[in-house]
Design goal:
The complex is a heterodimer of chains A (451) and B (210).
Chain A: H1 10-22, H2 37-55, H3 72-77, H4 81-86, H5 88-102, H6 116-122, E1 127-130, E2 133-134, E3 141-142, H7 153-158, H8 160-172, H9 191-198, H10 204-236, E4 245-246, H11 250-257, H12 260-270, H13 272-297, E5 301-306, H14 316-336, E6 340-345, H15 353-356, E7 365-368, H16 373-380, E8 385-388, H17 392-397, H18 400-414, E9 420-421, H19 433-446
Parallel strand pairs in A: 1-2, 4-5, 5-6, 6-7, 7-8, 8-9
Antiparallel strand pairs in A: 1-3
Helix pairs in contact in A: 5-10, 6-10, 11-12, 11-13, 12-13, 13-14, 18-19
Chain B: H1 5-10, H2 14-26, H3 31-50, H4 56-73, E1 88-93, H5 101-112, E2 116-119, H6 126-136, E3 140-144, H7 150-163, E4 171-175, H8 181-187, E5 191-193, H9 196-207
Parallel strand pairs in B: 1-2, 1-3, 3-4, 4-5
Classes of the chains: A alpha/beta (451), B alpha/beta (210).
């Protein structure tokens, strides 16, 4: 690179990240060895197809197919969600079977099922997971509660990191109770300040908490090794990874797992300014989360699951005041670092389309669940890549021919001129494999652009 | 007396509502009459939600104001409110699914529209639905579910209701995240509702009250 990263324009940064995605590295930092010239060709074609659909500069060779997965590979391979959360061999095996049998344009990676043992070790309270609060054959589910109280906004705003460590962690991790006693490490500035601030680390509850954290860390590292190895193996076989990182919209960060739905909805009335201030404090954290992950992964896509801004959840005025401003700051913060935000729009966004159009062209990729796709194309065509909307009910109980009809209609409606990818509306669990296959195969057959 | 409790509640004016309630209690007014007005205010909230004038934050906040009002009024009550309810509805999120936000909204809307809702909570075992139907004689059952895994739970629940010999005694509605007409057919339910208002309309059609 001639110019330093800081000197590049957002567009140049995006191009650079796409180039890194196109030329994957092995763990030693050397060029990844593809399994065959065909695999290398297929890999580059797949990344280029997605890149062209996103950038809106060139028409892709065909409509990309970008399936969204939850535990589908486990169900498909005959494992329970519990098995793949605890056995990383089965985890990799299930996902490999999925990728090789279905040949989607992206491999989903194996990060989504998450390592069960880590949660056991830490006594995680925020979710129920297979075998802990839900059956081994169920997926993990969030246990909504107020994990941040109504009067704790100022503590969060002053120092999100310290709040998370000393207030939030002891609530969501039973084994990290001792973290309540931790000092603020920003206090440690000069020699005389070191001793007093280190005292808490000698206290038994803090030492117990760290022991648990070290054990959990060791397990997480083991899991990460499996995740990395799987990504490399799939890339070598020609299947690029789906997303480089994750982040969340500040309103959802607050509303999902800190204040909870009820809490944040009441705060809209009782302490609206605190919400706005807290979101400002969280926005840089949320931007960094996405940016640092894409830099590590060498893949510009940052998935952002959207929750509480959907149609019906907020009025137009509430959306414009509470949801969109920091959402837009998040998008711009990511785009300025070359990332491609991939908002995963749960529920529907029909009333938000005119608002979200206000973004730079060719730098985002939106996947929709129940949004009217004709309206989405009309609003975002020429501005952003869109996808999604193949319904889960259809994939679960419909037939392959119904799926094909649905996908045909979507491609006819949204595919014209590029900027479109076929995807299912919400992350797939135990849908019918033949319907997944129909969605993927039909896109490959019908979605070819005639140049 | 300053202000009108019905409007204060309907317009989500918490402080005003609390002040009115306190004033009326100090004037030794019948607590049941105060609660009755609060109820009327909630009915208007429900209507505004149905008309897309109000959204989820507004609904949640109205529930919060009602809670505060009820806490003020309850200590002064000498007898229970004799609520004339339209009919009973057994409601719950099906086995394996622990999502409650959508369910709570539907229960709230059914309640403000005059139905007596027996809310069984989340992750409700199949047999519990059957037992409650028998116990209450409710003519309507509502099954909620957010996950796609709920499709099979709903199907199983409805089959169990059937094998308990209760299927022709109840109308069953389903709803939640990915529920559709297709899933209605798959599970054997009588109807599916796209949103909370659809549930009210269905209940009114089956029980009456419109």
């Amino acid at each position: 690179m001639e110019k330093k990263w800081e000197e590049l324009t957002p567009g140049e940064k995006q191009e650079e990240l796409f180039n890194r995605w196109l030329s994957p590295k092995d763990p030693q930092g050397n060029d990844l060895k593809f399994q065959s010239p065909q695999a290398e060709k297929a890999y580059k074609e797949r990344v280029t197809r997605i890149k062209d659909a996103i950038q809106l500069k060139k028409l892709p060779d065909r409509v990309p197919v970008f399936p969204m997965l939850s535990f589908f590979p486990a169900y498909y391979a005959g494992y329970t969600p519990q098995e793949i959360m605890y056995d990383y061999d089965k985890l990799a095996k299930a996902h490999k079977k999925y990728v090789l049998d279905f040949e989607p344009d992206v491999n989903p990676g194996i990060g989504i099922p998450t390592p069960g043992r880590v949660f056991d070790i830490l006594d995680y309270k925020l979710y129920a997971w297979p075998g802990h609060g839900v059956s081994p054959n169920s997926t993990y589910q969030c246990l909504e509660k107020e994990y941040m109280m109504a009067d704790e906004y100022d503590t969060l705003i002053r120092d999100p990191n310290y709040f998370f460590t000393t207030t939030y962690f002891p609530r969501i991790f039973g084994e990290l109770e001792g973290f309540k006693m931790l000092p603020n490490l920003a206090n440690v500035q000069e020699m005389p300040f070191v001793g007093p601030n280190l005292v808490p680390f000698g206290l038994p509850p803090v030492q117990e908490a760290y022991k648990a954290l070290l054990d959990a860390g060791a397990e997480a590292l083991k899991w990460a090794g499996a995740v990395g190895a799987f990504g490399n193996e799939m890339a070598a076989l020609g299947f690029p990874g789906g997303a480089g990182g994750f982040t969340k919209v500040p309103f959802d960060t607050l509303g999902d797992t800190l204040r909870g739905t009820r809490g944040i909805m009441i705060d809209i009335y009782r302490q609206p300014d605190k919400i706005l201030e807290a979101m400002e404090a969280l926005t840089p954290v949320m931007i960094d989360m996405g940016v640092s992950a894409t830099q590590m992964a060498g893949n510009p896509l940052v998935m952002i699951p959207l929750h509480k801004g959907a149609d019906g959840f907020l009025s137009d005025a509430q959306f414009k005041k509470f949801y969109w401003p920091c959402f837009k700051k998040l998008l711009m913060g990511l785009i300025n670092e070359g990332c491609v935000p991939l908002p995963f729009v749960e529920g529907s966004y029909n009333t938000r389309l005119e608002i979200i159009r206000d973004i730079p062209k060719g730098s985002t990729f939106w996947t929709f669940d129940a949004t009217d796709m004709a309206k989405a194309k009309k609003a975002l065509g020429g501005i952003a890549c869109i996808g999604g909307n193949v319904p889960t009910d259809l994939l679960s109980v419909g037939t392959p021919s119904q799926v094909k009809d649905y996908v045909k209609n979507l491609i006819d409606t949204c595919g014209k001129g590029g900027g479109y990818a076929v995807a299912n509306g919400v992350a797939a669990d135990d849908i019918k494999p033949e319907n997944m296959k129909a969605m993927i195969d039909f896109t490959k057959e019908y979605g070819v652009y005639k140049k | 007396m300053a202000g009108n409790l019905v409007n204060a509640l309907a317009d989500l004016k918490e402080e005003e509502a609390i002040k009115i309630v306190k004033d009326r209690l100090n004037a030794n007014e019948d607590p049941l009459k105060i609660l009755g007005d609060a109820r009327k205010g909630m009915e208007i909230v429900g209507k505004r939600f149905a008309d897309s004038e109000y959204f989820i934050p507004d609904l949640v906040y109205s529930g919060e104001i009602l809670k505060v009002v009820s806490e003020l009024v309850k200590p002064k009550m000498t007898k229970e409110a004799d609520s004339k309810k339209l009919g009973k509805i057994v409601f719950g999120t099906v086995a394996g699914d622990i999502h409650d936000i959508g369910k709570d909204i539907v229960v709230f809307m059914l309640d403000v529209n005059g139905f007596e809702v027996i809310d069984l909570g989340v992750d409700v075992p199949v047999q519990k639905f059957v037992d409650k139907i028998k116990e209450t004689g409710a003519p309507v059952v509502g099954l909620s579910g957010f996950l796609t895994l709920a499709f099979d739970s709903m199907k199983e629940t409805i089959e169990t209701v059937k094998s308990a010999g209760l299927r022709d005694k109840v109308k069953i509605m389903i709803g939640g995240g990915q529920i559709s007409e297709e899933i209605k057919k798959y599970t054997g339910a009588d109807a599916y509702g796209k949103d909370a208002m659809a549930a009210v309309t269905l209940a009114q059609g089956w029980i009456g009250g419109k």
